[in-house]
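Changelog entry: the Cysteine desulfurase record was regenerated in this release. Current contents:
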Amino acid sequence: MPFFDAASTEPLHPAARAELLSALEAGWADPARLYGPGRQSRLLLDQARARVAAVLGVRPDEVYFTSSGTQAVHLAVLGALRARRRTGRHLVVSAVEHSSVLHTASTHESDGGEVTTVDVDRTGRVDPAAFAAALRPDTALACLQSANHEVGTEQPVAEVAEICRAADVPLFVDAAQSAGRADIPEGWSLLAASGHKWGGPAGVGVLVIRKHTRWRSPLPEDEREGRRVPGFENVPAAVAAAAALEARRQERAVEGPRLSALVERIRERLPRFVPDIEVVGDPVRRLPHLVTFSCLYVEGEALITELDRQGFAVSSGSSCTADTLRPSHVLEAMGVITHGNVRVSLPRGTESTDVDEFLSVLPAAIIRLRRAAGVIS
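Regenerated structure tokens:
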């Protein structure tokens, strides 16, 4: 079955699999211990940290491993807000942030903080000028994803980072969809990423806190990960995630443009093959592997089931709330069709023939569903 839901998770990269198996043998001991097996685990963990730092262009002592990308988001946002309470309790977010960011913002608001949401245009991108207008003297933190997880639109991180720097406001960047697939612009203060998104194992995230960024843990103090992330480190998973990230960087020059061309084929052909369909997101400034479209007169969940019957695994609706059957907050913020929504995200190694087969079965699937709904005869 062609797997077209890489934005949710990538299959384990072969480089990650090989190093995971090795690290399970060599990195099982407590990396905080001074005996031989513990020192070996610490060496593997520090090497993994340095490898991730090299790919992200940061210092190894700015990188911390977490249990997930979501935990990295929670720690980054809540920790920065806690450290800057004397500055104020105002938080700025974009309207299309991942639910982990928006839920954290809601928690902050429930705790007496204030949140300003910056709208996006029809492609899903924020206007740097609008972001600048949202900043205030009491703004403690600003949040802007590197690229959208549902429609692939890249955000103007570099411009917003410069605006935040001038206003002396730290910028948090959720890079879960970009890390390993695209360069992340500089200028941010905190970053979160998720290993399974680039072909590492599930259960390992990355939190980056740049030097001179004020941050204070929102959780009880723990001795692990520089006192910033509690819990026993998953050394084998960290090693495997680092291996996958390095491998993706090495492959990106070839694989990125190849996947982008396949996505462009889908973007270009769908409106010609299927009536009453809207392809959303920026057609140019986008991630290379992701395309989202909406079909009138078709329920997204029904289309997902029909495509699954045809052998294609894709996702529908909000990538993080599809099981609730609520409209996607991203698509609502963009002002585009929110029902009959399908996200196609291609993993590494996707074949051209798989995309062509998908394009051949999709129109008939939509016609069957529209006919069953009585929209067409």
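The chain has two domains: 14-247, 252-372.
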